Amino acid sequence: MHRRISLPPGGEARCVRCRALLYRVGRPDANERALALALAACIVLIVANVFPIVGLEVKGVHNSATLFSAVQSLWEDKAQAVAVLVFVTTIFVPVAELAGLIWVLAALRFGIRNWGAVPVLHFIESVKPWGMVEVFMLGVMVSLVKLAHIATVEPGVALFSFAALMALIAAAAAVFDADAAWQQLEAPQ
Ligand SMILES: [Zn+2]
Q1: How far is the CA of 14 from the centre of ligand 1 (A)?
Q2: What are the pLDDT digits (tens) for 106-117?
Q3: Which residues contact 120 (CB under 8 A, 6 or more apart)?
């Protein structure tokens, strides 16, 4: 067991036995930066869901699909399990994770602690493994390359938005200083 000590700016605390990183002093504005990145991700997420992911043209017939319409047609094609999986991993979890992160960061930013930030922080941790925008992107890329032989494929706005979303979610998660957040939440009123 280690007793928590306060560190100088830029310092990090390591285990005396195995040198594993226990905690470090992040930038004081880390969670404000995380909030900015999460808000940017939120905007990109809306764009990614409103615009088509891909447009296809086969023999003069043009067709384009948004993510949600893809989920709908999977459902109608009797692939309900796949439809639910796609919906949960590419729409529900990213939305829930981002909304939760923005909620907590906004609560910290404005110093309000009765907003249920603690359960929301636990909730974010529990849904995180189910967010699979990266896996989805990889799947879309592979199918586009395969489809290119039989149809004219036009990447849609949403495809690029998903790429940006991936980067922004990763950046927000990397910048987010969970340790500072917990300290701020647990500090006596
Ligand atoms: Zn250790």
Answers
A1: 8
A2: 888 887 766 778
A3: 100, 103, 104
